[in-house]
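INFO worker-7 received task bundle
INFO bundle size: 2
INFO processing item 0
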Amino acid sequence: MSCKLLSFIGTTSYIESYYAYNNKSSERPYQFIQEALVEFFCKEWKDDNKLIIFMTEESKRKNWLSKSECEDANFDKGLRERLEKVKKRFKLKFDVRNVEIPEGKSEEELWIIFEKMNESLNDEDVIIFDITHSFRSLPMLSLVVLNYVKFLKNVKIERIVYGAMEALGSPKEVREMPIEERIIPIFDLTPFASLFDWTIAIERFLQTGNAEMMRKLGIEELKPLLAETKGEIGGGLRELITSLDKFSQNVLTCRSPESKSTIERILNAIPKAEKELEKLKPFKPLFGKIKERFSCMQINDVSFGIEIATWCLEKGLIQQGFTILRETIINYVITNILKCNNLQKKTYREIAEVMLNNKYEEIPPEVLNLWHEIVDYRNDINHAGWREQNYHSSTDFERKLKEFIERGRALVERNND
């Protein structure tokens, strides 16, 4: 694992300027933003870290090389020579590499650029990415590459930055400014990449019920937010994400009583999280999807079992769905036939199961029929299909679970009426 700063240079004759990041100005003006990036982000780097500059053949001549090396060069001292000077000033020894790329004027050339960027990154690298001088479709292509290597190589994107000279005015206006006023802001675009990650994480949770990616993002991104705002922003979001992850684990392991209390915590955490999201507006609609799904859940004991079984069906958790639905029928008998409220008492559950298995006349036929059909499918799936009789095809389970849930919901609604 190593830290890498990836950047591009073009062919423009760049204007010497100060740069500012996080309300702090560079110590001196620089001809190239890459010099300022070393000052801001690389002063603590180890020797095995790397600064990688992508360039076309023309940009290499114009800005990478010095006039002593190439007559076409824009400056007496090109970027290569200037970076060595900055490294020497800060006593740094990391490698600086230039990688030549085509201009990206065809799909074939774009794929070459993709491969060049991919080959520059190794497993578990930590990346700072500068898109200031990326041209044409390169910013979009770069984001595609970064997301690709995040998955393939477990690369971490520490920061995405952009030097916004246009914030000062046109190139002509900037050139005419006194150099002490020529301070180019460096924008941190990392939150936009984070928004993309959160979109995927929330979509994954709502599609599969797995909150692991949300939990990992919460650990990585909310911790500095909590520290920066002294707990003013992030506490409610952390509680919501922690509860969602707990709910995910509860459902995967069929912890129905815990799932019920966890949903109550989720519903209680949503209002506080919404207030915090007023300051993080793009995130609010994403978490609104979670609110929309959980707010409609009924959490009384029998209906809740139907709700969780439905959640399992939606997320493809078929085995969990059958297990939870079976126990929900027992809850129905304890509540409506035995007229008891303690659903976890072993004696009550044993009595209810005996009544169901032996088809006691106190239990309505539609409940008995549903029970025995659920038990048949649940036993088949829990015994991994190792049965001589009543063997069901893998394609049957989802369809039957949906049918059983609908029948169970009808029983609960009829009883409530």
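INFO item 0 finished
INFO processing item 1
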Amino acid sequence: MANKLKLFMIKGLFRKKRVMQNFQIEISAENQEQAQEKTYCLIGSRYKCPRRFIKLETKGLK
């Protein structure tokens, strides 16, 4: 069975040093939870930011 991916717009904040940084990213995932998990992984790996310093707001597009 083929999994249907949806497009999610993830907006939020993460702490970069001592400053809160805004971000906006489009993620394709099966559901909202997977889109949020993928965003945590991407922001965490790019900026070495722990999850507790990442605040997300999710909006489904398609």
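INFO item 1 finished
INFO post-check item 1: The longest strand covers residues 6-16.
INFO post-check item 1: DSSP finds one helix and three strands in the chain.
INFO worker-7 idle
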